[in-house]
Design a protein that fits this description.
It is built from eight helices and no strands. The protein is mainly α and about 210 residues long.
């Protein structure tokens, strides 16, 4: 039970932090809320979260299939190192550029809010490798055992963590908007630091397992 609680909390926090910096999805959740009302903003967030659940499920099963061969575990951890290192650099660079880059908004007139959320979430190509890397890390630490319950906890927690961010943007963007650039930079730096920590832990684990 303690293992499941840890898996749930870790996945939820990882999903929340990954969705927190202003970007395509959460800013469009805010835009939908402003233009169509908060209810539609929440429905948009549900659409995003539903897609994240599917992407997390796919990431789990990719790692699960590969991990069935003991000799592949080391390769998976090496892949996780590359993912965490790349994401650390990505979020660091994004944080430095945040003051100059603009957020892209997508016209959703031809789509319902739920469908629009799902559609835009599929454009986020980092989601599957991000959750695959996390899943590999969790498995190496012993609290992701690929049981049905573990997989359900992982994917549901990923969806809930993402939805909480969409909800906050839909309801509280007006209050957050004044500090968007500073908030965005800090959030990206926090994510970069988190990826560095995961990189170091995975590197140590890989070194001692060799």
């Amino acid at each position: 039970m303690q293992q499941l609680a840890l898996l749930c909390l870790a996945t939820f926090v990882a999903a929340f932090l990954a969705s927190l910096p202003p970007g395509l999805l959460n800013m469009n959740a805010a835009k939908t809320s402003i233009e169509k009302g908060r209810k539609n903003g929440v429905v948009f967030g549900i659409g995003v979260s539903a897609t994240v659940v599917l992407q997390a499920y796919l990431a789990v099963h990719i790692a699960k299939i590969l991990s069935r061969s003991p000799e592949i575990i080391e390769i998976l951890m090496q892949v996780a190192l590359v993912i965490f290192g790349s994401l650390a650099a990505f979020f660091l660079i994004k944080g430095k550029k945040q003051g100059t880059e603009s957020i892209e908004f997508v016209d959703g007139k031809k789509r319902g809010s739920f469908t629009k959320g799902m559609f835009l979430a599929t454009l986020n190509l980092l989601t599957i490798p991000y959750y695959a890397g996390l899943n590999t890390f969790f498995h190496s630490q012993g609290f992701m055992n690929y049981t049905i319950v573990d997989e359900a906890v992982f994917v549901i927690s990923a969806g809930l963590g993402t939805f909480l961010v969409m909800y906050l943007y839909a309801f509280y963007f007006d209050k957050m908007n004044q500090k968007t650039h500073r908030f965005s930079k800090n959030a990206n730096y926090i994510l970069s630091a988190l990826m560095v920590i995961l990189f170091v832990i995975t590197l140590v684990k890989l070194f001692f397992s060799s």
